[in-house]
Batch of 4 targets.
Target 1
Amino acid sequence: MNLIRITAMQDNYIWLLFNIKRESIIIDPGIAPQVLQCLKKNNLSLKAILLTHHHDDHVGGVSDILQHYPDIPVYGPLETINKGCNRPIIKYNKITILDIVFKILHTPGHTLGHLTYYAMPYLFCGDTLFSAGCGRIFEGTPQQMYYSLQLIAQLPNNTLICCAHEYTQLNLKFARSVLSKNQYIKQYQKKINQLRLNNQASVPSLLSIEKKINPFLRCYDNALELNYRLGNKPNHLWEIFARLRKMKDQF
C-alpha cells in the first residue's frame, strides 16, 4: 500500500492509502476539495472512508465526497453517525478493506468514541497521539487518555504515526520544558525546526521516536517527575499524565 498525506485547512492532514489497482481509502476528510483533487490527479478510485471521531475538521468533507462517490462505505464510531458514517463500528476488533486488515483500537479521551486504525505499519490515530504530544481531553478523562496512549505504545516500534495535525514544533517546546535534560528531544527539535523552515511535514513519525521524545509516553520518567512541579507525588502514572496535560493546556 502507498500513503499520501493531504494538507488541508490550517494544520490538518488527511491521509490516503492506495493499492496497485489504484483503489484508495481516505482517513478523516475534514474538507472535500483537496481530497477530490488528489484522487483525480493520481487517477485513483475511492473505495472507503475511515473516521476517527466526530469533530468537524475530521468529518467536514464527508457529505461532499459522498456526492461524488455515493455508494462507498464510511466507517467510524457511533458518534459519527450524523456526520456521514454509514458503517458504524460497535465492536472494536478488525475490519478488512481492499484486502487490508485494520485493527481497531478504542482510544477514548479526546472524545468518548474516538477510534484508531492500525494496518501495519500505519497507525491512523486522529487526535489521540501527536508527534511529541497528544490531543486535548474534551469528553473523556485523563485516565482514559493515558490508557489509550498506553494501548498505542504496545504496537511495534516501527509503527508510523499518521496523526491529523502539524503540531510537532509546539509540542517539542513543551517537551523541552518538562524534560530539559533529554538530549534526544533537543536534537530532534533542531531536525523538526529545519523541516518546518523548508515547509516540510514532520509526520508520520516512528513510534520508536515518540517513545523517546513524547512526554505523554514517558510518565514513568524520573527526570520528568523532577520537572513538573505540581503538588505532591501522585500514586498512579495516569495522575502524572493528568498533570502534564493540564500544564500543556496552559503552555
Note: The chain has a mean pLDDT of 95.
Target 2
Amino acid sequence: MKRLLLILMLVAAPALAVQPDEMLDDPALEARAREISQGLRCLVCRNENIDDSNASLARDLRLLVRERLLEGDSDEEAVQFIVSRYGEYVLLEPPATGANLILWIAGPAMLLVALAGAAAYVRSRRRAPEPDAEGLSTEEKARLAEILKE
C-alpha cells in the first residue's frame, strides 16, 4: 500500500493554479498564455511562476497576460507590457544586460576569488617552515613549572 501511494505521488502531475474562469476559449491563445506565464515570476511567492501560484497577484498577472493576448499583442509585447509595469524582477530569467550583468557575473567571480584565496593559503602553508621538534628549552620548562605552581 505504501509503495502504491509513493508511486502515485511520483507520477502525479503538478497542479496548476489557473482557474477555469481564467482560461481562454481559444486553445491556441490559451497555450500562448501558459507559455508566457511559465516565464513570469509570482511577486508574492518569489521563485514560482504565476501559473503555479495561488496568490491573488499571480491571478491578476495571469488575467493581464490573457487580456493582452486578446487585444492582439504578440508574446513579446505582452511580456514587455508586464515588465514595464512591474520591472524586470517579474521575469524568472532576466536578461544578462545592464545592471543585471553585474548580478550574473558576481557569483562566479566571487567563487573564483575564494578559490584563488584558498589556493594562496594552501601554498603559503606548504612553504611555512616546519616547527622545531626539539621541544621546550630549559628556560621554557622552568617558566612553565613556575606558572603551574601558581
Note: The chain has a mean pLDDT of 83.
Target 3
Amino acid sequence: MRNLARVHLGGLRAVEAAGRLGTLRAAAEELGVTVGAVSQQILKCEAELGRTLFERRPRGLEPTDFGVAVLERLSAGFAELSAAVALADRRREDVLTVSVAPVLASKWLVWRLDRFTRAHPGIRVRIDAALDLVDPNVSDVDLCIRVGRGGWPGVRAERLVAQLVFPVCAPALAQRLAGPADLARVPIVTEPHAMFSWDVWLAPNGLDAGILGEGPVYSDAALCFDAAIAGQGVFLAWETLAADALAMGRLVAPFPDRYPTGISYWFVTARDRAPTRAITAFREWIAGELRESCPGGAAAVGEGPQAETAR
C-alpha cells in the first residue's frame, strides 16, 4: 500500500463523492465543503495520479474510461472504510441511528419519539432525515424506515403497514364537497413527484384525474400538507401524514373511502447482522405506533409484519 502515500486521502474522497453523485455541488454538500474546494481536490488528485478522471460537461462530470475503473474501486474501498468506522457505534447498545424520509420524520415520527425515549431511557436515538436509500450494511445507520414496494437488494426488509390514501382539506373547504365529483370544482394541491397518482383514489369512484381542478403545486409533500391545512386546496394524503391533523381538527377527510397505493412502510436492517437490543426495541415500538396511526394499513398487510431478505 505504499503507493497511497503519493495521493491525498481527501482528494480520493472528493473524487469518489463526485463520481457517485454526478456533480460538484452534490459532492460538496455531502462532504460539507465548498464546490471550489471539491474541484481543487479533484484537480490535485488527477495531478497526483497523472491521469484525467473526469471530463467536464455542461450537465456535470463524466468519468473517463480510467475514471470509471478508479471509481469502481474507490466506491468499494470507501464503503469498507465506512463500515469499519460504523463499528464504533454498533458496539454500543445504547445508541441507535435511524434513517427516515424527512416528511415522515417531521410530520409523524418526531411527535411520537418521546414515547420511545420514556419507555427506553437507556437508548439514545439519532434521526437521519434523508431521501437517499441508505445501506445499513456499510453505513453508520442501524436501521431505516423506508416507504416503497420492497425488493431492495442486500438488506432485510420487514413490511410494517400498507399505505392508504384519501383526500384531506381544511374544514371550511370540505363544506363544498358533497361527493367525489365535486373535486372538479375546488383547488387541488399537487406534489408532482409523488409515488402515486390521484387515480389510485379516483378510479374506484368511477373518476379519473382529468376532472381535477387546478391548484398550487409544491415539490415537497410536507409543503403540500401544510398548504391543505392553510385552506389552499385538497391534498391526497396518507394515514401517517394526516393522522395528527385529523385528530386535532386542522384537517378533515371529506370522504370515507381509503385505498391502497401498493406502497408500504418497511423496517430495513442489515442482511447478515443480528439485530441489537436497541434495534429490536425500536422495531417493536414503531410497529405498534404505525398500527395505531394506520389501522387500515395494518389490516391491509395482514397478521404481523412480512419479512423479505434480498440476496
Note: Residues 2-89 form a domain with the Arc Repressor Mutant, subunit A fold (CATH 1.10.10.10).
Target 4
Amino acid sequence: MTLTAGVVAVQGDVSEHAEAIERAAAAHGRESEVVEIRESGLVPDCDALLMPGGESTTISRLIQREGIAGEIIAHVEAGKPLLATCAGLIVASTDAQDDRVETLNLLDVTVERNAFGRQKDSFEAPLDVEGFDEPFPAVFIRAPVIDEVFAGVEVLARWDDNPVAVRQGPVVGTSFHPELTGDSRIHDLAFFDASTR
C-alpha cells in the first residue's frame, strides 16, 4: 500500500524531506508518493504530513491564508502522523513567544525562536535520541529551543539540557533539520514507529 506523504511547501525547498520519506518508506517495504502542499484540499488525502523549516512567521501566515492550517489540525486530530521540523516545530507549538506566529496548538510546548543563534552559528551535533542505537547527526540552523514541555509531551532528545526533539501523540517535533543528513531515522520514527499512532 502506497504511503501518501504531504510536505507543506508554502515556503522553501522540500526535496530533501521527500527523499528522506522515500528512504524511510523503502526500508519498511512501502511505496511512497510525496505531495507538495501549497493550497487547501490536498491534506485530507495524505497519510502523513511534514511541516519543514523556513521562516515561521511566513509559514504561519501562508497556511492560515490558504486554508491549510485547519486541515493540518484535522489531520492530527484523526490520529495521522505529523513531523514538524525547526520552523515547523514553532508553528506546531502552543506558544511561539511571538505574536506574529499563529500557532496550531498541536504540541504542548513553549518555543523560543532562533535561540541557538544566527545562520553563522549553525552546527552539527551527535544527538542521543530515545530508541536509537547510535547518535543522530543533528543539524541545527537558526534553531529554536523548546523552553517548556507540558503534560503529555515526551522528550526524545536534549542538547545542552534543552529539549530538541519531542513527541505528543502522532506529532513529532524537532529543533533541528533531520532532512539535511543521509539518515532517515527521524522520518522513520515519525511515520513508521507504532508509538506515534
Note: Residues 15-27 form the longest helix (13 residues).
